[in-house]
Amino acid sequence: MSIRPKCSDFDQTHTADVYETLKAEITSGLLQPRERLTEEALAARFKVSRTPIREALQRLVNEGLAETGAGGVSVAVLSVEDIRDLEQANRALQSLAAELASAKGSAEDMAKLEEWMQQMEACTEREDTEGWIAADHAIHRHLFLMPGNRWLLKLLLQMEALVARVRHFGIRGPGRMKEATQEHRTVVNAIKSRDPEAARRAMHDHLRRVEQHLVHILETFIVPLKGEGL
């Protein structure tokens, strides 16, 4: 005798699919700030009822990727001050992750971290921006996992989605890729040497430099074109 799935099971699956798709489109910039996210249009697009659409949108609002207003739900707008605040919180969390990774990471973790680091350095040599960004994401994601702290991981992943909306701007500019690669090397070496304080400090310094460069790019080139928020 087979057991038929409950309707709620289908709704949960559809909610997850809609949420992941919209989240990826927001963080990549495919969906722009202030762009409306209407239940009717999304239900037609995904060929589902409005219930999973409504639940997915609520998740996005809860995570700061979307916002509600008089016109309904839309992609959230980030001001430069929002970005400063996000980067400050992200820096604190990632510095803690680096500190814990240095103390708790296994030999296999360290080897994988070094492997990704070498890939980043190779991308820097051949000026492969897309490859560099992929290696950067892999290094940080691996560091999130190394402490083995599921609550810290949850917070880091939420922060990752928020800063991803603008982080790709931060690697642009003459010499920044090489400079950022050297910062990553300092972080990785500190973690591999199992020096928690040095690892924490190196990650803090790296992400502080990221924030400074990112805000400069946004204030100089992006915001004047797009307005107060982005």
How would you explain this protein's 3D organization?
The chain folds into two domains: 7-75, Winged helix-like DNA-binding domain superfamily/Winged helix DNA-binding domain (Arc Repressor Mutant, subunit A, Orthogonal Bundle), CATH 1.10.10; 80-226, GntR ligand-binding domain-like (Four Helix Bundle (Hemerythrin (Met), subunit A), Up-down Bundle), CATH 1.20.120.530. Helix 4 packs across helix 6 (129-145) and helix 4 packs across helix 7. With 230 residues, it is mainly α. Helices cover 74% and strands 3% of the residues. The mean pLDDT is 89.
**Amino- and carboxy-terminal Cα gap:** 54 Å
Helix share, percent: over 70%
Average of per-residue pLDDT values: 89
> Using only CA atoms, what is the Rg?
20 Å
Q: How big a fraction of the residues is strand?
A: under 5%
What is the highest CATH level, the class of the largest domain? Mainly Alpha
Number of domains: 2
Could you say what the CATH topology of the largest domain is called?
Answer: Four Helix Bundle (Hemerythrin (Met), subunit A)
| CATH-scheme architecture of the largest domain | Up-down Bundle
Question: What is the 3D shape?
Answer: globular
Brief summary of the model shown:
The chain has helices at residues 7-28, 39-46, 50-62, 80-104, 107-125, 129-145, 150-167, 176-192, 196-226, and strands at 66-69, 72-75. It is mostly helical and 230 residues long. The model has no long low-confidence stretch (mean pLDDT 89).
